[in-house]
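If I may wish for something, please walk me through the protein I am sending here so I can picture the backbone:
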Amino acid sequence: MNKRRTILIADDDEDDRFLVKSALDDCQVSCAVKYVENGVEVMSYLEKGDGHGDSQHKPSLILLDLNMPKKDGREALKEIKNNPDLRSVPVIILTTSKAIEDINLCYGLGANGYIVKPNSFSELANTLKILTKFWLDVVTLPPM
C-alpha cells in the first residue's frame, strides 16, 4: 500500500473509534489514518488538512458515521459529493443505522458503499480488511 494514502474516519463515539483503530491495526493497514468527531471537522479537514503539517486535504478513503453532532454524516456526504474537487473521494458509510431511508438517502447522495457496523470485533476487522484492500489496493483511484 502507498504510505502517502490517508483514510479519514469520522465517528463521534470514542469506543467505536478505538475499535476501528484496533481493527485497522489488526489488518496491518499501512497508510495514514486520521480521525474526526463530526461533520464540521470532516469538512474542515478536507478544506485545511489536520493543522499539523498535513498538506494532503484529500484522503484516499472516507469512512463516515451518520449520527454525529454539529453536522451529521448525511450533511457532510452531501457537501462532499456536491464539491467538484472532492466528489471523486470514495465515501463509505460505516454506521449502526439499518434504516432503509438512510441507505437510500446515502446512495442517492453519492455514497460509494454503506456498511452497518458489525456486532463483533472479528467481523469488524474482517470487514475493514476487505474494504481497505479493495479501495486502497484493487481499484484505481484518480490522482490526488
User: Anything to note?
Assistant: Strands lie at 6-10, 32-36, 61-64, 91-95, 113-116. The longest strand covers residues 6-10. The two ends are 15 Å apart (CA to CA).
